[in-house]
Amino acid sequence: MTKHDPNPSRLAMVPFISVDHMMRIVNEAGVAQTIAAIADRIEADFLRWETFDKTPRVPSHSEEGVIELMPTSDGEFYGFKYVNGHPANMARGFQTVNAFGVLARVDNGYPVMFSEMTILTALRTAAMSIVAARHLAPKDARVMAVIGNGAQCEFQSLGFHHCLGIEEVRLWDIDPKATAKAVRNLEGTGLTVTACSSAEEAITGAQIVTTCTADKKQATILTDNMVGAGVHLNAIGGDSPGKTELHRDILMRSDIFVEYPPQTWIEGEIQQLAPEHPITELWRVIAGQVPGRTSRDQITLFDSVGFATEDFSALRHIHAEAMRTGHYVELDLLADPDDPRDLFGMVARAAGQ
Amino acid sequence: MTKHDPNPSRLAMVPFISVDHMMRIVNEAGVAQTIAAIADRIEADFLRWETFDKTPRVPSHSEEGVIELMPTSDGEFYGFKYVNGHPANMARGFQTVNAFGVLARVDNGYPVMFSEMTILTALRTAAMSIVAARHLAPKDARVMAVIGNGAQCEFQSLGFHHCLGIEEVRLWDIDPKATAKAVRNLEGTGLTVTACSSAEEAITGAQIVTTCTADKKQATILTDNMVGAGVHLNAIGGDSPGKTELHRDILMRSDIFVEYPPQTWIEGEIQQLAPEHPITELWRVIAGQVPGRTSRDQITLFDSVGFATEDFSALRHIHAEAMRTGHYVELDLLADPDDPRDLFGMVARAAGQ
Question: Which residue of A69, B71, B173, B176 has the fewest C-beta atoms within 10 A of its own C-beta?
């Protein structure tokens, strides 16, 4: 490998947040505190929902999985995320999901940051769940079931503990090793952690039920008789065409809240419903336009699929933190000839160096 | 700035081609030779056009310009380009166009390369023009007019000289300084270079007319009476909604060839035409399904806007060259926990290091 040219111009350089930088940024502030800060950014951005240039994510499907681009803009900054989803990856020693993204200035199109987003996506997904639960979950919720103890589990648990006062998490996974891993990771966090031997056992006494399983098929993690009155369902795992987690009968009994309807109809639990079925855009609840939870017995369902503005909010937070802490390196990413029209001359002159 | 963790796993690392690396790769092979190699890749990929997952680029428009994502896949690799277009940038000392992109494996979604693409886009645009001209221009063409002497001018000139036997380029630009820059850059390349004082003068005696101006508005670089029989028009600059270069009457006299019709109807010169106007997909000419140039007097028009598969072809070439030459560095871009489900544990354990 050759070394970088040590002297490109300032305009050529773009800050890069590696995995190592991201971990430093997150650990210096604290995982829960970072989730809380991203949740505040997400909520503030949902409050100005109509400012954003919104589009469903742009997928490229294959037999093995999907690669997606998720762009958005608020008129001042533009952000996009690249993210893949390959369910068979784990068995082959690869991550199911990898992500990275870019934040750029709208006025001149120059990127201001290139960043890892695998860790950041985990953080923002938990942060988004917290924003929704803040407006939809019973105020006195203290117990959360977490069905599916993969990569999301601890971020959800810790985030809900820190931001919403959840005191106990009840964990279940088809693979007991996943649960054992989560139990270990949550030791010493102040949470009461209960490993359960069935989904039924996990949701007993829980006011919030988080489902975050990873199967890429129509699954029924929860059936109708398992979900009692007054529960808030935080459904994370149903997030692509054909991939759902909840029995349709649960949806029929729930008030359903979504991020961006054109995307959720394609990817969320509501794939299972008729297109005229009533759903509520979460941003309207946050903005006070429509009510969230209206009664103790109501079942609220946040049908989360993950939307581009949430990644945007997370990128904005990490950009600010990276600039504050210095946890980044600069990449010579942009060609910057002395005369902008003289790209050829820049290349040709480099040959003589 | 903090240093990278020196010991992330192999799976975490993604090769990065900086501007400096790109210039080394291009200069070691030669600019014209690189354009020729990319042209061969583009032509081969056009021959298997139906293999590709195709979509019009995904734009985010603002008052100042546009930021676009251009994804495609051939089922084995996935590629996308980020590119902006900000016409006012040059006056402010910024590049009008910046680009970077990623090549990834479809089977597991892992990126295999992150690369600068500002220089690469210039090379592939010239390469695409050559592929089209190979099938559409008069075989005995020796003189090319280049209207607009900005960043594309020298790449087009040198590429056409090397690949198609063009012996003279006749240059014109509204700004004589741009022409003077191109004349300087093309010294010693074997081309006869003639600086002209009007578009009319430039196209005199030219069998190929390349238009590559940068205005983001309806312009009329060429009017109908200027274009004689038998000419091949290589129209590069009309490439976004509202941005065209040729008078509509020229289009009415030409046989028009395009890359990907759903995108060209939005961005190309054919914006000016009724949707039922006949156009020909260039890949069908290359595949021998339909004729290209059929007579000496025919005016052929390649209405080029730039399509994602061309960037894909260029990325594949540069990936091969980077691996061969070692001109890259590796970035710690992908989180790679020992247990793929234990993303949280990886972050938490890093705190103790």
Answer: B176
Which of A11, A60, A340 lies at the smallest CB-CB distance from B90?
A: A340
Rounded Cα–Cα distance for residues A207 and A308 (Å):
29
Q: Which of A209, A191, A190, A187 is nearest to A200 (CA)?
A: A209
Question: Beta partners for B209?
Answer: B145, B233
∠ CA A330-A57-A88, rounded to 5°: 85
Residues of A with active-site annotation: 239
HSE-CB of A100 using CA atoms within 13 angstroms:
25
CA–CA–CA angle B96, B97, B103 (5° rounding): 170
B194 token code pair: 């003639």
Q: Classify B104 as helix, strand or coil.
A: strand
Listed in sequence order, the residues at least 6 apart from B199 whose beta carbon sits closer than 8 Å to its beta carbon are B145, B147, B172, B221, B222, B226
pLDDT (tens, 9 = 90+) of chain B, 353 residues, equals: 444 444 567 888 999 999 999 999 999 999 999 999 999 999 999 999 999 999 888 999 999 999 999 999 999 999 999 999 998 898 888 888 899 999 999 999 999 999 999 999 999 999 999 999 999 999 999 999 999 999 999 999 999 999 999 999 999 999 999 999 999 999 999 999 999 999 999 999 999 999 998 765 667 788 888 888 999 999 998 767 787 889 999 999 999 999 999 999 998 999 999 999 999 999 999 999 999 999 999 999 999 999 999 999 999 999 999 999 999 999 999 998 888 889 999 999 999 76
Provide, as residue numbers in chain B, all residues whose Cβ is less than 8 Å from the Cβ of A321: none
**Residue B311 in tokens:** 């960037």
Helix, strand or coil for residue B225? helix
Supply A24's token pair.
Answer: 């430093």
Residues of B in contact with A78 (CB under 8 A): 60, 67
Counting runs of H as helices and runs of E as strands, what totals does chain A give? 11, 17
- Using the beta-carbon criterion (under 8 Å), do B181 and A341 form an inter-chain contact? yes
Q: Which of B3, B4, B67, B156 to mutate to test the interface with A (most CBs of A within 10 A)?
A: B67
Specify the pTM.
Answer: 0.93
Select the residue of B75, B98, B343 nearest A122 (Cβ to Cβ): B343
CA distance A263 to A240: 9
